Each structure stands twice: as C-alpha cells, then as structure tokens.
Amino acid sequence: MLNKRKDIIATVEKFPNYIFHILAVAKINYNSDYANKYRWAIEHQDLEYLYNSRKLLEFGNGSSSDLTYLFIFLPAYINFESEGEVEKYFQLVKYSVENNDIQLLADQYYEYLLEQEKWTYDNVFGYLEHLCNNLHLKSKETVKVLSDIYIRNYIKYDKVWEIEKGNIVKRSKELNKRLLEEDYILKWENLTGLDFLYDKYEIVLCSANANGPDANSLGYERNLFYSGYDIDKTMEFISHEVGTHILIHIIKELWGQFHGQILYSAYESLVKFYNKIIFEEDQISYSLEQFNDNEFFHIYNEITEENSNIKGMELICEGIRRWELKN
Questions:
Q1: Could you say which of 162, 197, 216 is where a domain stops?
Q2: Measured between alpha carbons, how far is 169 from 194 in angstroms, rounded to an integer?
Q3: How far apart are CA 160 and CA 152, in angstroms?
Q4: Which ranges constitute the DSSP H helices of 153-292?
Q5: Strand duo 222-226 + 216-219: pairing
Q6: Which are the contacts of 195, defined by CB distance < 8 A and separation ≥ 6?
Q7: Residue 319 belongs to some domain of the structure
Q8: pLDDT-derived band of residue 1, with 50, 70 and 90 as boundaries?
Q9: Is the dihedral of CA 302, 306, 307, 310 positive or negative?
Q10: Tens-place pLDDT, residues 9-62
Q11: Is 209 part of any domain?
Q12: Distance (Å, whole) CA 17 – CA 81
C-alpha cells in the first residue's frame, strides 16, 4: 500500500497577516513601503507605544524577545477568525501576566500548545509559566497596553485586508500549482530517513513582512512566508524550511552543548547543504551569509567526502568542532 502524500499548501489567512501588519507599520524589526502606506490603520499613539516597546517584540535569525511568543508566534499559529476570538486571547494574556497564572490561557488553548511541543519547546506550559512569573513589572504593564492595542486596532485592519487579500490569493494559486508538481516532503524524508510529523505543511502567505524576517516558523506544520518574492526563490526556501522542520530534533538535542548562535548557524547551513542535494544543483539562489554558510559548506563537503554515509547529527557535531578549530 502506497503512503499518502504529505502536501505543502499555501494558505491565505487574515489574522497572521494582521500580526505582521502591526510589526510592519510600527517599524518593529524592519522598515518598508508597507509601513508608510498603512500608517493610517493604527492609532498614532499606539504606533508610538509599539515602537517604544520594540525591544520586547523583536526577533530574527533564531533569537527572540520576551514577548515575541505571546504577541506574534502563538496567536499567529492559532489563527483567530473573529474579533471576539482576538479579544478573548489578549484578555487571557493580560490576566495570565497580571496574576502570574497561566491556567486559564493553557486550558483555553491546550491543544494548540501541545502541538507546539513538536516544534521548539519541549515543555511549552513550563515556558509560559516561567515567562509570566519572571517578567519585570514594567514589562507586565507593557503586556496590558499591547494587548489593548492589538484588540483595538483589529477592526481597522479590515480595510487593509480588503486591499491586500487579492494579491495574496493570486500568489497562493500560483504557488499551489507549483507545489503540486513537487514532493519536497518525500524528498526530505528519503534523504534523511526521518518522518515529517504531519500530513500537511501550511505556508501562510503574508504581504506585510517585506524587508523583515521571512520563513517564520509558527509551529512544526505552519510557516509564514512573504508573498512578494520571486516564485522560484520561494520554492527553494519552502524546501529549505521542510528541512529545518524535519531536522528540528538536532537543535533540541544539542541545545546547551554548543554556543547557541554557532549551533543555529551550523544547523541552518546544514539544511541548505542538504537542500542543494534535493535540488540537484551546484548553486541555489538564496543566501545564508548571516549563518556563515560558505564556511560550513566547505567543512560539510570535507566531512562527507571522508564519510558519505554520515548522518545529520554526527555531521553537524563534527562540523561545529572543525569550525571552532578554525575560528
């Protein structure tokens, strides 16, 4: 009996776009034409407060800030579909932080939080409890104000969504047609000998993150991509992200054994190294210069020439050892 194909599907979702709309217009992490186009869609005093609070929300290249999970990744993963759902979530966030008690939040979103443990956090409930209990008083006050900002400005986003949705839908159709012609998940499973943990992988398309962090993993089976990039480059990077997810156990098992940024750079570079095999090309178009990918490529080539059967875990450990000797 043939195994059922695990599909990659480009989706069009309002709420994750709203989350990144806030970041874009407030110029948190990045600046773009989008910010100038839609400044009217967020109250002026709210924009000022968001920008002044940016250090608590910024993220990128494997790092995040104190409020990134509660205000960006968890709500975008859940994907609320109504104003009432948005308000309920942020009111629960406020309550959890004010009272050092995550129980109501955890009970309400238990199934979503449990799924998150297949991604970054082995104990997401413990992480949330630690976060809420250890925020400084000033940060706790910021949580209250930010929650109200996210609730208050959601209704104004309707007009933005009416403008932006059409182009996102068009790109989703183009991508889904291309994705049906490929089976990146099967290729990664065959290359690594590992199983992708879900029957489908959702690529949430977003128009608000031009110039900002891209390929933002919301969970193991959900990732947020900028909708405006060249489609061939997007296809390459979708495959790359299949690789980062199927190999996430490497980061989880090795975390704490190596310097965090070195480990993360080696991991991203390893995935790109494998992605070149997936595409059967000497060159692929995207760069990971921020992760020293050329240096790690040279090292991984050396190691695999010595042992062509070496597995990913051994390869990254030996790669880091050799990188540290050279640096």
A1: 162
A2: 32
A3: 15
A4: 157-180, 184-192, 231-246, 248-254, 260-279
A5: antiparallel
A6: 189, 246
A7: yes
A8: very low
A9: negative
A10: 999 999 999 999 999 999 998 999 999 999 999 999 999 999 999 999 999 877
A11: no
A12: 12
* Residue whose C-alpha is closest to residue 175's, from 9, 38, 291, 2: 9
Distances (CA, A) of 124 to 116, 119, 233, 250: 7, 10, 33, 18
Contacts within 8 Å (CB) and 24+ apart, 227-233: 227/167, 227/168, 227/171, 227/172, 228/167, 228/171, 230/285, 231/171, 231/174, 231/175, 231/178, 232/285, 233/285, 233/286
8 A C-beta contact, residue 209 and residue 20: yes
Domain carrying residue 262: 247-327
Q: What is the SS3 assignment for 178?
A: helix
- Which of 116, 251, 272, 263 is closest to 197 using CA atoms? 116
The answer to whether the predicted template modeling score (pTM) of the entire model surpasses 0.85 is yes
The dihedral through the CA atoms of 63, 65, 67, 71 has a sign that is negative
Do 17 and 149 share a domain, yes or no?
Answer: yes
Question: Which has the closest alpha carbon to 47: 20, 25, 17, 65?
Answer: 25
One-letter identity of residue 117: E
Name the residue with tokens 């209250």: 144
Q: What is the DSSP letter of 71?
A: I
- List, as own/partner pairs, every contact residues 133-136 make where C-beta atoms lie below 8 angstroms and the sequence separation is at least 24, other chains included: 133/100, 135/66, 135/97
Q: Which two structure tokens, joined as six digits, stand for 130? A: 């630690």
Q: Strand pairing of 63-64 and 222-226?
A: unpaired
Structure tokens at 95: 């309550």
Give yes or no for a contact between 3 and 25, defined as CB atoms under 8 angstroms apart.
Answer: no
Please check whether residue 327 is in contact with residue 265, taking contact to mean a CB–CB distance below 8 angstroms.
Answer: no
| Residue at which a domain ends, from 137, 162, 187 | 162
Residue 62 falls within a domain, yes or no?
yes
